């Protein structure tokens, strides 16, 4: 009979720290004693379901992975409004690049994604007697988690099933971790199911593995500190072409893609609730039938980022010349009175009446904020892709999307990859689909800056902005309400608890 192995967290050896002296307390150690005996395998089906469930929770929250990738970028900030969203400065520190090794999201993301790697390793181990497809799915999830650890932290600890609490996990360098993720994905491909667009893409498929392989090869030169290798860029092209061969394609109706419906773009989704993507930005008085309590009035975007979209920057009502992806603010009560995309200016309710804030002033979202502190209820442009008219807490959040793959291919060609298509043609194909610039003036050339802007317009709020800014050499630039331009911030610190617990880890430069 197989032993059921419970993994609590990678920092199960040392779980919590004192904010003053970082001393480890014995009561914080909850290592499962069954790990000290001989490993006999896990129930692969139940363990795989549990791993998918854990990743779903990690994607759903507005903290963790989402916060590290979006709030640290020029795309999102979470201003403190009175005492709301103060949270001991965790949001402000992310936006201003002043986090440290004690930061909540730095620690929790490290713990959860290393936990994923370990749990996947238990399923992959031959003693678990997993089927070939179960092994392949576990290798995909291990590759997915290893990719994020290497991307965010630059090194990755690894523990085998037979290593007990007295063994310090070995540590893979960034290059080794990336190679490990690539190996997992390449080995997984033959035994993953083939699937085109369908309603069951919440588990790993060949297309999902091809997407992640393309993502890793596109970023590989950044991780190695080298120039883009044309051979790697050609691999990106080939992986994206394989996704297209499975039936995925660009879809019209931009905001329809984010409904809980089958479309040609969604390659991989989780059943995470989309509520945090909706309600963390909307005002307290903006609500829906399944959330009469209203929004949480937090997340906003920067006017600099908003201005990368075509159209009058001071208004976003229908007919004001905005491109499709920028969205609109309805004035007639449609869509529950809540807009799509970027919400700026006066907001209206489900009857078409102008809304007011809680003290009776006009609910008129402003372009500018006084800063990360000192905000009132209406400062900042709001942004929303998943919409409450499709369900305020619908369980359908996209992880991989074909438009991302399409733009990865365009960028790979721009960086020297071989393809029968041009970067300019691919970008203009997407822009025409999205009615960018009124669909009347395709770009005549495409530069790296154009490519970064196009990725921002297409993929905002989808976990990729930090990754893109780093690859294009822009993450250390100054932008609104962010002054720290320290280049070492391209990596997050190894959490203090992990450094103390594992002497094989070395703190990243700058921390």
Largest sheet: 3 strands, antiparallel
Radius of gyration: 23 Å
The end-to-end span amounts to 47 Å
- The CATH topology of the domain at 1-175 and 487-511 is given as Serine Threonine Protein Phosphatase 5, Tetratricopeptide repeat
Mean pLDDT: 92
Order of strands in the sheet with the most strands? 4-5-8
Number of helices: 15
CATH class of the domain at 1-175 and 487-511: Mainly Alpha
What proportion of the residues form beta strands (DSSP E)? 5-15%
Give the beta-strand count: 9
- SSE class: mainly alpha
**Overall geometry:** globular
Show unreliable segments: 1-34
Helix and strand element order: HHHHHEEHHHEHHEEEEEEHHHHH
Quickly give the CATH architecture of the domain at 1-175 and 487-511: Alpha Horseshoe
Q: What is the helix content?
A: 25-40%
């Amino acid at each position: 009979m197989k032993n059921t192995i419970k993994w609590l967290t990678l920092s199960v050896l040392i779980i919590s720290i004192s904010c003053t002296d970082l001393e480890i307390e014995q009561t914080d150690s909850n290592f499962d004693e069954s790990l000290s005996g001989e490993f006999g395998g896990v129930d692969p089906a139940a363990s795989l379901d549990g791993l998918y469930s854990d990743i779903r929770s990690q994607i759903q929250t507005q903290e963790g992975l989402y916060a590290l990738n979006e709030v640290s970028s020029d795309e999102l900030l979470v201003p403190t409004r009175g005492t709301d969203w103060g949270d001991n400065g965790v949001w402000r520190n992310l936006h201003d690049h002043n986090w440290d090794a004690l930061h909540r999201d730095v620690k929790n993301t490290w713990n959860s994604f290393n936990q994923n790697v370990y749990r996947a390793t238990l399923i992959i181990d031959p003693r678990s007697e997993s089927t070939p497809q179960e092994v392949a799915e576990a290798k995909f999830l291990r590759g997915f988690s290893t990719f994020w650890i290497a991307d965010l932290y630059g090194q990755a600890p690894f523990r085998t099933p037979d290593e007990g609490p007295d063994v310090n996990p070995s540590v893979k360098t960034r290059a080794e971790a990336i190679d490990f993720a690539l190996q997992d994905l390449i080995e997984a491909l033959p035994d993953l199911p083939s699937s085109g667009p369908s309603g069951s893409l919440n588990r790993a498929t060949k297309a999902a593995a091809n997407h992640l392989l393309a993502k890793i090869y596109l970023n590989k030169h950044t991780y190695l500190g080298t120039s883009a290798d044309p051979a790697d860029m050609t691999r990106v092209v080939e992986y994206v072409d394989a996704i297209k061969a499975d039936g995925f394609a660009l879809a019209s109706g931009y905001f329809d893609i984010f409904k809980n419906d089958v479309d040609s773009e969604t390659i991989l989704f989780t059943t995470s609730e989309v509520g945090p993507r909706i309600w963390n930005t909307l005002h307290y008085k903006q609500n829906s039938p399944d959330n009469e309590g209203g929004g949480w009035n937090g997340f906003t975007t920067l006017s600099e980022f908003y201005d990368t979209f075509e159209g009058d920057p001071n208004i976003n009502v229908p007919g004001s010349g905005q491109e499709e992806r920028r969205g609109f603010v309805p004035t007639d009560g449609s869509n529950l009175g809540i807009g799509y995309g970027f919400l700026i200016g006066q907001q209206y309710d489900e009857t078409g009446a102008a809304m007011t804030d809680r003290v009776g002033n006009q609910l008129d979202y402003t372009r500018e904020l006084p800063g990360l502190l000192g905000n009132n209820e209406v400062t900042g442009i709001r942004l929303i892709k998943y919409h409450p008219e499709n369900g305020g807490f619908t369980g359908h959040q996209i992880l991989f999307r074909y438009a991302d793959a399409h733009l990865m291919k365009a960028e790979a060609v721009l960086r020297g990859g071989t393809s029968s298509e041009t970067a300019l043609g691919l970008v203009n194909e997407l822009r025409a689909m999205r009615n960018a610039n009124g669909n009347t003036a395709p770009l005549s050339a495409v530069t790296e800056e154009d490519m970064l802007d196009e990725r921002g317009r297409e993929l905002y709020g989808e976990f990729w902005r930090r990754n893109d800014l780093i690859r294009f050499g822009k993450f250390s630039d100054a932008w609104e309400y962010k002054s720290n331009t320290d280049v070492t911030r391209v990596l997050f610190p190894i959490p203090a608890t992990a450094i103390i617990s594992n002497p094989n880890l070395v703190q990243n430069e700058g921390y």
